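User: Can you model how NAI sits in this protein?
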Amino acid sequence: MTTDALLPSVASFVSAPKQLLIDGELRDAADGRTFATVDPATENEITQVAQAGAEDVNRAVASARRAFEHGSDWNRFTPRQRGRLMWRIADLLEEHADEFAQLEALDGGKPFVGARDGDVATAAELFRYFAGWANKIEGTTIPLSSETADFLAYTVREPIGVVAGIVPWNFPLTMAAFKIVPAITVGNTVILKPAEQTPLSALRLGELMLEAGLPAGVVNVLPGFGDTGAALVDHIDVDKVAFTGSTAVGKVIAAAASRNLKKVSLELGGKAPNIVFDDADLSKAIPGSAHAAFFNQGQCCVNGSRLYVQRGVYDEVVAGISEIAKGITVGSAFDERTDMGPLISDEQFSKVTGYLEAGVAAGATVAEGGVRVGDRGYFVRPTVFTDVSEQMSIQTDEIFGPVVTAVPFDTEEQAIAAANNTRYGLAAGVWSRDIGTAHRVGGRLRAGTVWLNSWHADDVTLPRGGYKESGWGRELGSFGVEDYTELKTIIAEL
Ligand code: NAI
Ligand code: MG
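Assistant: Here's the modeled complex, given as structure tokens:
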């Protein structure tokens, strides 16, 4: 890709090293360190980015604390003013939709149209949905009396304080919004740590929020690696950590957060089972299951990566999904013909191709794909494995690439047992024309989101999160508000 394919605003944004956003100002890291962010389609450096160290974390937390304190500009915002500001940010995001989509395409390899109509649109929608909540955060009154006195008892919801949002690279802008939006809706302040692979769109969002009128220090953006995230988690003056990423890091964060018992919400890995019964409408189940597996280059925590198909339609479903996989155009995020872009990084490319080799070595059959594309950029063909057993690493581990394993089953009980045989519990799905079967089986799947005869149907109004090792807590919908507030109970003797 050459920079003349970029909008002038994007070309100019990446033409110089990017700085940290602390207390409403762009500045270099205190120790001057920078790192490269890379275009995964070309493996070329896009630009250098300031790398936040411990001193920058201290400054950002201090700034977020000042912005939170009683009497600050932000503290004096009324709920209605917060809502209006969030609407303004949503409008600005939409005005700049092409620019943000190009940043996601360049930094993360996401096909441009999907980035604009999916990622950017969802981020704008999040601001609007939560803007509506800003002046509807209510408590309850609770009847209370004793033999000797009557009381007035009621609850109020208050912001928690300084929130650290630590996010991954698979939906850089949307994930940034997932953490920032519910937090500021209720008056918290935020330090966002974007993923080291994709810092650009979050930095641009930070600028845009200032332009919209967000007071300094309410949202700080600190690019960096795991050590930057760890310094935030360890900081005594951070009140809550909201994390999305790997289960391994989620466990480290849960342990580290105990230093001051800061609140923690975790949205972690998945290995979602997708069950197709003999009586499913295959004209929907086949494309739906391919979409479940391959969406976002396979780099999505709720993707349906374990496909269980009832024996009678197994061959037809595997052939159908393989045919779809074969037809997927893998290429540059900026090419209109592209269906699937590159994987995010060298590391992810090695991980995914390592699983492709491990699957073959363990005796699984590659029904389709199984190879890289070209010799530059992190491109992999969408892959379908058959002859898979439950112990194989391709069946137990979150691969986080465009890889699906297909396993036949005979009875409903078998399918449920196999589906639940995982340490994860983020998402699951069932395809059947029998509504009894669909609801019965869906009800027994141990997962935070269950799709019946669909996959990836989604909205900012819906709570999401995981059972088991897929996380703690629920995000979005009304749960998003609860997750970012403390509940206070007030009891007065009358
Ligand atoms: P990761 O969990 O290491 O990184 C996610 C975020 O956490 C990044 O911002 C990273 O800098 C930060 N981080 C890393 N170590 C930290 C620590 N000790 N304390 C605080 N923050 C820390 O995920 P990574 O390495 O990018 O991907 C590895 C695997 O994790 C993927 O292959 C995939 O299986 C899974 N993953 C799952 C995601 C999901 O949405 N559930 C998203 C990204 C990755
Ligand atoms: Mg990592």
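A couple of observations from the model: The mean pLDDT is 97. The first helix runs from residue 8 to 13.
User: Helpful, thanks.
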